[in-house]
UniProtKB/TrEMBL annotation:
<keyword id="KW-0560">Oxidoreductase</keyword>
<dbReference type="GO" id="GO:0016491">
    <property type="term" value="F:oxidoreductase activity"/>
</dbReference>
<keyword id="KW-0479">Metal-binding</keyword>
<dbReference type="InterPro" id="IPR003347">
    <property type="entry name" value="JmjC_dom"/>
</dbReference>
<dbReference type="GO" id="GO:0046872">
    <property type="term" value="F:metal ion binding"/>
</dbReference>
<protein>
    <recommendedName>
        <fullName>JmjC domain-containing protein</fullName>
    </recommendedName>
</protein>
<dbReference type="Pfam" id="PF13621">
    <property type="entry name" value="Cupin_8"/>
</dbReference>
<dbReference type="InterPro" id="IPR041667">
    <property type="entry name" value="Cupin_8"/>
</dbReference>
<keyword id="KW-0408">Iron</keyword>
<keyword id="KW-0539">Nucleus</keyword>
<feature type="domain" description="JmjC">
    <location>
        <begin position="159"/>
        <end position="296"/>
    </location>
</feature>
<dbReference type="GO" id="GO:0005634">
    <property type="term" value="C:nucleus"/>
</dbReference>
């Protein structure tokens, strides 16, 4: 059962590294006047110096991980960890390769910057304009159509269950296999993978792709085949009471109703409205090509 809330943002701008003060949006490119206006409103992006005192450090990176270590130590502790997976670098996935080989496969797309507000429109105190609704919609497309729009600079992001035919290219990380997982009651099977997801984006500064701050009730393993992705994590067991969630589904690691999203806007956190959030300890990392990260 998961216990980590997260936010992710793939950016091209981080190829040569970046300061933590600019880790989630190109706020460093803002004018002095814009920066002053944001400070007056007391809104700061995740990674800003305002949150420095609550920073818990970088996520641990390990070069190798055995099945025994993962299932007996890492997974039970419920702490994110990065693992090098050099075999991912041999996967020939590029936009061109995917478009040519799997172009007719059906996938789901969203806009580059995720906004879950429309999921909660209609609740008491929540009103949504037509503009919000239009930006929050998802749709179906083919791999070739979506990649074509990306190349043209369109606002499109592939975020979908992975089509079956694409699985042939993908290795299964050895450390999640094997019999070291506690068997399900009455069923002595090993690792159960409930869903395989696919995320594909193509962004050039100043554009970027981002997700909202959210909590996933199931353990996840995110592997980076190409590019890089910025991650920020909070431990719900420790600081869940400081992070508002729309539905309040998380109560404890053993009492979770479902996944959930936070109304906090990570690109500009309103610290006057959410003062406790600034004290929630956060951890971050940049997931590079050829690495996987376990997200409990």
């Amino acid at each position: 059962m998961g216990s980590i809330a997260s936010a992710a943002s793939p950016h091209v701008v981080f190829d040569n590294g970046s300061s933590t003060e600019c880790s989630h949006k190109e706020v460093c490119n803002a004018s002095i006047e814009e920066s002053i206006q944001q400070a007056v409103r007391r809104r700061y992006p995740l990674g800003h110096a305002y949150f420095e005192e609550s920073w818990g450090g970088e996520i641990t990176l390990v070069e190798e991980l055995s099945s025994y270590e993962f299932w007996r130590k890492i997974q039970p502790e419920g702490v994110p960890v990065k693992v090098r997976m050099p075999e991912l670098l041999s996967i020939p996935w590029t936009l061109e390769y995917l478009s040519v080989r799997y172009g007719s496969e059906a996938i789901r797309t969203e806009v580059r910057n995720e906004d879950r507000l429309s999921d909660y429109c209609g609740r008491e105190g929540v009103s949504c304009s037509d503009d919000i609704m239009s930006k929050s919609t998802s749709g179906m497309s083919t791999v070739a159509e979506a990649i074509g729009k990306m190349k043209e600079g369109g606002d499109v992001y592939i975020i979908s269950q992975i089509p079956v035919n694409l699985i042939a290219d993908l290795p299964v990380p050895s450390f999640i296999a094997g019999g070291h997982r506690d068997p399900l009651e009455g069923d002595n099977r090993s690792t159960l993978l409930t869903e395989l997801g696919l995320w594909v984006s193509s962004s050039r500064p100043p554009s970027f792709t981002s997700s909202v701050i959210h909590y996933d009730m199931n353990d996840q393993l995110m592997c980076q085949i190409s590019g890089w992705r910025e991650w920020t994590f909070w431990d719900m067991r420790r600081d869940g009471h400081k992070i508002p969630m729309w539905s309040g589904h998380y109560h404890s690691p053993s009492e979770v109703v479902g996944s959930d999203d936070s109304p906090i806007q990570g690109e500009m956190v309103d610290v006057e409205r959410w003062p406790q959030f600034a004290a929630a300890r956060w951890f971050n990392t940049t997931l590079q090509s050829g690495e996987c990260i376990f997200i409990p």
